[in-house]
Amino acid sequence: MDNQLRRVLTLWDLVFYGLVLIQPIAAVPLFGIADRLSRGHVVTTILIAMVAMMLTAFSYGRMAAVYPASGSAYTYVGRGLNPYLGFLTGWAMMLDYLVIPIINIIYGSLTLNRLIPSVPYVVWVLALTIIITFLNLRGIRTTARTNVTLLIIMCFVIGAFMVLAVKYLLHLGGMANLFSFQPFYDPKTTDLPSIATATSLAALTYIGFDGVTTLSEEVQNPKRNVLVATVLVCLLTGIFSGSQVYLAQRVWPDYSSFPNVETAFMDVSRRVGGLALFNAMAFTLIVASLGSGLSGQAGAARVLFGMGRDNALPNKFFAYIHPKSRVPSYNIWLIGLLTFLGSMLLDFERAAEVLNFGAFLAFMGVNIAAIKQFYFCRGPDEKKHLFKDAFLPAMGFLFCLWIWWNLPRPAKIVGGIWFLLGIFYLAYISRRFRTQPVAIDFSES
Fold it and tell me: Which of 40, 104, 314, 342 is most buried, taking the most CB atoms under 10 A from its CB?
């Protein structure tokens, strides 16, 4: 009993942790692109994605009660469905780990380029990649105190934006200008294919909600609280992010006139708060990008290290630990190189869509695993509940499938090639599916 974790975390501790993981400015980098893709209906895309994530969060929360030590889609699918499908889910998740630092370096570089346009984009990409690689090689990781400080700054800046946006809209046209149904539905511009494509991007807002399940061994009443917390994190994120983009749309209703679509929220901030808010938003986005890029690179390097240690990848390279810094330095160099190349070859939109390719494959797998676990594998004395055991996870699967299906073709090509490589690699390490696949260790990421 001595090696068990203490169950001290409350429901609201879990919710706060989940909101920190997602970040309160999660929708800000996506705003301009999603607004353009949806033809002025980015709020609608945020809310549709919220429904899909809440249904999936329900499946995650229930699976976490069955497998409390894992907190990973890889484990839920591997144990709940099939170890080979579990490996492929883990392989899809690995794509996300590789793309996360790329996304953050791209956006940080775009933001810096807006502030200092005389410095070429490639210079910012190189500089930021070197910074996070150097810090990870030194074994420096963001601390809990740093994350809380950053969260406070984010909340202050985005809170200032929302207050100033409301003031701006009221001054411009009163209550009728503040409250409008147009961001949700405009008969002149609304069409389902545009909204579907934009939703496949806007869903990135919620990536990270599943991190709540990793604390299931430390939670009071985990069977209830982990499930409720994952759903609440998605709900609160949807409400808060939806409010941000709603105000941004009302402030800047013409989605086709942004000076720079990738950093459009900065221009909206300038309109309501002048240069001060423009710079504050830029500073927040840069620091958030660096922090997330640092953590993302460290997580990717440690996943590769785990696979090397377990001989799923060549041990000599991927399991190497630097004798002084005690970090997987070869992996960090490799991720740094891939981050730089990916940031030059992909734009923010494409990188986000590639990440969602892997994420939504994992989400669909968890929903299917939940159906099997709670509906088809019930004991003879256990009562089945059609609504919560089959209908809700089935709806979560269908929503995720719809979002995944509407990803643009380039993301499907890149993700499909990666997934095909995973199938070939799985066949190789399992001796043509005759032995159990080697486990992928996500525990240290």
Answer: 104
Cα distances (angstroms) measured from residue 35 to each of 29, 74, 167, 265: 11, 33, 22, 11
pLDDT in tens, 68-112: 765 578 888 988 888 899 889 889 888 988 999 999 999 999 999
In the chain the first and final C-alpha atoms are separated, in Å, by: 26
**What six digits make up the tokens of 82?**
């099939």
Closest Cα partner for 92 from 443, 444, 442? 442
Of the candidates 311, 298, 335, which has an alpha carbon nearest to the alpha carbon of residue 425?
311
Q: How confident is the model at residue 144 (pLDDT cuts 50, 70, 90)?
A: low
> What pLDDT digit, counting tens, does each position of 183-198 carry?
888 888 888 889 999 9
Helix 83-115 to helix 348-371 angle (10° resolution) is 150
Distance CA 259, CA 124 (A): 20
Query: What fold characterizes domain 11-429?
Result: Amino acid/polyamine transporter I (1.20.1740)
Asked whether 38 and 181 are in contact (CB, 8 A), the reply is no
Distance of CA 231 to the CA centre of its chain: 15
Residue 244 has a CB neighbour count (10 Å cut-off) of 26
Is a pLDDT exceeding 70 seen at residue 359? yes
Cβ neighbours of residue 298 closer than 8 Å, sequence gap 6 or more: 136, 141, 332, 445
> Are 105 and 132 in contact, with CB atoms under 8 Å apart?
yes
Cα 317 from Cα 324, distance rounded (Å): 17
What is the C-alpha R_g of the chain?
22
